[in-house]
């Protein structure tokens, strides 16, 4: 029996859907998106509590965060990724994201997640300063200097 282009296309779709769960890129990207979404949500909460947002800014931020969450859930469904699987356990470092409902910005937990640590870091601010030399055959070919200020507050 001869196979038609439609048969080949159907076989390709079956192969793609079987490999969705095996491909680590989609869950990784969705995890990073969820980390950024929760980090932005924490920053909105901090600014709301400090009365730094107007009513319209708060409404826009809340609406945007809800839409972003819906998009992430839609992408999870599309790529057949369980949203609960987006929280990665990093061993001794704890988890990437806090357990649902276990973190509120400004409150400290007994075992903070990476998200909580990033939120605290952004709230207090940090300066990174460094240099990197890359070379080959005892020749310095690339010299990079890095000076980075990371904070959620205007400088």
TrEMBL record:
Keyword Aminoacyl-tRNA synthetase set for record: no
Location in the cell: Gas vesicle
Keywords: Coiled coil, Gas vesicle
Main location: other
PANTHER family reported in the protein's UniProt record: PROTEIN GVPK 1
Family membership: Belongs to the gas vesicle GvpK family.
Protein name, as recorded: Gas vesicle protein K
Organism (species): Dolichospermum planctonicum CS-1226
């Amino acid at each position: 029996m001869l196979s038609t282009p439609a048969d080949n296309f159907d076989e390709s779709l079956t192969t793609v859907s079987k490999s969705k769960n095996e491909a680590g890129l989609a869950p990784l990207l969705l995890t990073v998106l969820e980390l950024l979404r929760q980090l932005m949500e924490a920053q909105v909460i901090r600014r709301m509590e400090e009365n730094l947002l107007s009513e319209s800014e708060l409404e826009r931020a809340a609406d945007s965060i809800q839409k972003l969450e819906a998009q992430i859930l839609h992408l999870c469904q599309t790529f057949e990724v369980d949203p609960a699987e987006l929280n990665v356990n990093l061993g001794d470092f704890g988890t990437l994201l806090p357990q649902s409902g276990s973190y509120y910005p400004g409150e400290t937990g007994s075992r903070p997640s990476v998200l909580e640590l990033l939120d605290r870091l952004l709230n207090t601010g940090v300066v990174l300063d460094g240099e990197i030399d890359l070379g080959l055959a005892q020749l310095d070919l690339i010299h990079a200097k890095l000076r980075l200020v990371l904070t959620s507050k205007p400088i």
